[in-house]
Specification:
five-stranded antiparallel beta sheet, Beta-Lactamase, 14 helices
């Protein structure tokens, strides 16, 4: 703050001294010019009187001594140098110097001006008297002809002596004014800088967190208003900080109370926020500002982080970390370029799912043998019975076949869901694979009078799939298409694009309403339960199809409307990862 006070003081003092100096300088120049103008006018008047006196002597060229005696006497009397110069510039007489020893004055400025009729005063250095002088020259005209010049001059030191005396008096006054101004500037600078010093001191306290700091400045000017605004600002800041601290504590308590692991990562992968549950997942308490891969060294999680950072998307996926299964929800915060990860522990759910799968597998295995035996006995009875009894046996056989199909599909689905399922990849022509599958359905197509058309691009490359599993895909999809199509037929199209093979299986059947699209791949989900039971559907076929497609790193989607048929689109990458999936 002393620096501001010094700046104000020095600034004002500099301006005052500068203006005082300018006033003295301008006053000196103005007085000097005024005196020179006044004396010049007096010299012109004096010169006019001298011309009247010396004109008779000039007509007589033999009276140079009389001219010189006259002007010497006159010059000493009026303390003015008088010089008579002829038209050629020769000095005829001079009141201060011997005219015969003086040089020609034809080129003197005042002489040239007088000859040209200018009659202007001239200030210059005299080479004769070796001093600065003021000259005024006037022409001497007789009978309309310029015959000589009369020049009068005075020493400028006399003028300077007077102007210097006046200047000294002005300087004394200026110094007094500067001293008075000096005191005023000190008082004025303090009146400005003291409130600023108080504001600065109070602002430092506020910066350190002391919001009780106040500034008390009396007055009704802008500085007092600024002080009042500062006090109001600190009061509002105090309220805001209390609110922020309260919200911060609530936020911390809320985060701490969440049982799921919570972590916020920046774009560099550094952990910037977390809760206790996530620290337990990492196995460390000091994880802030540390990169996540130090604690979660898992390629799948790194790929998830990179995917969200690139696409700025929200993703949920399941992942196993340290032998614990988590459902990870990742949300990208666009404004802060941060990613929020929420780790839901689903280990118990996974165990229940595994128990459920094991139960299904075990039950399916246990049911397969008695159902096969029942079917054998039913076939034996069917040959021996007739009439109404044979009809009942036929119904039993139909439902037994449906139970056998359900058990068979459950075993297939359980096999596909087993971790580390091995796929036997091989390159095969899609036409050959479809030809083998179509032969299974020739009889059914003829019975319902349906067509099946295949349209495959001529340049379609070989597909790299597990042939047996992929045959199951087509068997299930074509079988469903035949079951739910009463007229028309089925079209199978295939092409390649962007490193993928796209297969479209389209029927002209009943179609599937849009509200069922999100659930049709669930196990045992049936759109039309009565028709499914009638045609022998198990509700597991599409679930089996989706698992096989996912094992091939592919995708399956549905396009369908009620009454307008159904299209299943399958996309399979041309190059497969040969690792165990």
């Amino acid at each position: 703050m002393k620096l501001v006070s010094s700046k104000v003081f020095i600034g004002y003092l500099f301006v005052i001294v500068l203006f005082a100096g300018l006033i003295v300088y301008i006053s000196y120049r103005t007085i000097r010019v005024h005196y020179i103008d006044t004396i010049s006018q007096n010299l012109q008047n004096l010169n006019a009187s001298i011309i009247d006196k010396v004109t008779p002597f000039i007509n007589d060229t033999t009276n140079n001594e009389q001219i010189e005696q006259y002007i010497t006497t006159l010059g000493n009397k009026i303390r003015t140098r008088i010089t008579i110069i002829n038209i050629d510039g020769n000095v005829l007489a001079d009141s201060k110097f011997d005219a015969t020893k003086m040089e020609n004055h034809r080129n003197r400025p005042e002489v040239i001006d007088a000859i040209n009729g200018a009659n202007k005063p001239e200030v210059r250095y005299s080479s004769t008297l070796h001093n600065e002088m003021l000259y005024v020259a006037s022409p001497i005209i007789i009978d309309g002809k310029m015959i000589a010049l009369s020049r009068v001059s005075v020493f400028l030191e006399d003028i300077d002596l007077l102007t210097n005396q006046l200047t000294n008096e002005i300087m004394q006054i200026a110094i007094i004014l500067i001293l008075i101004s000096f005191v005023i500037v000190i008082l004025f600078s303090r009146s400005i800088t003291n409130p600023i010093f108080q504001l600065s001191k109070a602002s430092r306290k506020v910066a350190l967190g002391d919001f009780n700091a106040k500034v008390n400045i009396k007055g009704k000017d802008e500085i007092s208003e600024l002080a009042q605004n500062f006090n109001n600002m600190t009061n509002k800041l105090k309220d805001l900080f209390e609110l922020v601290n309260s919200q911060k504590n609530e936020y911390r308590n809320l985060i701490s109370s969440i049982q799921e692991g919570l972590a916020v990562l920046n774009q560099d992968g550094l952990i910037i926020h977390s809760n206790s549950a996530f620290k337990d997942i990492c196995g460390s308490q000091n994880i802030i500002d540390v990169k996540f891969d130090k604690y979660i060294d898992k390629k799948e999680f790194a790929d998830l982080f990179n995917n969200i950072s690139s696409n700025k998307d929200n993703i949920s996926t399941e992942m196993e970390i340290n032998d614990i299964h988590y459902l990870i929800s990742a949300n990208y915060i666009d404004k802060k370029n941060e990613i929020v990860f929420l780790f839901h522990n689903i280990n118990e759910r996974k165990k229940l799912e595994q128990i459920k799968k094991d139960f299904v597998v075990n039950v399916s295995h246990e049911l397969r043998t008695p159902l096969t035996a029942i079917k054998g006995f039913i076939e034996t009875l069917e040959d021996e019975l007739d009439g109404i009894n044979q009809h009942y046996v036929g119904i039993i056989k139909k439902h037994t076949d449906r139970l056998i199909n359900i058990v068979q599909d459950l075993l297939i689905l359980s096999e596909l869901e087993v971790k580390n399922t091995h796929l036997l990849f091989s390159n095969i022509d899609l036409r050959i694979l479809l030809d083998n599958v179509i032969k299974i359905f020739e009889q059914k197509l003829m019975e319902k009078n349906l067509y099946l058309k295949i349209n495959i691009d001529e340049n379609l490359p070989m597909i790299n799939v597990d042939t047996f599993r992929f045959e199951q895909v087509f068997v299930n999809l074509i079988d469903n298409a035949i079951k739910y199509t009463d007229f028309g037929g089925i079209n199978i199209n295939a092409n390649s694009n962007d490193g993928k093979i796209n297969i479209y299986i389209t029927d002209t059947g009943l179609g599937i309403p849009k509200e069922h699209h999100s659930r049709i791949f669930e196990r045992f989900y049936l759109v039309d339960k009565s028709r499914s039971r009638k045609v022998g559907g198990t509700g597991l076929g599409l679930s089996i199809v989706k698992h096989i497609i996912l094992l091939h790193n592919g995708e399956i989607s549905i396009i369908s409307e009620k009454g307008k048929g159904t299209t299943f689109q399958i996309s399979i990458p041309l190059k497969q990862d040969r690792k165990v999936l």
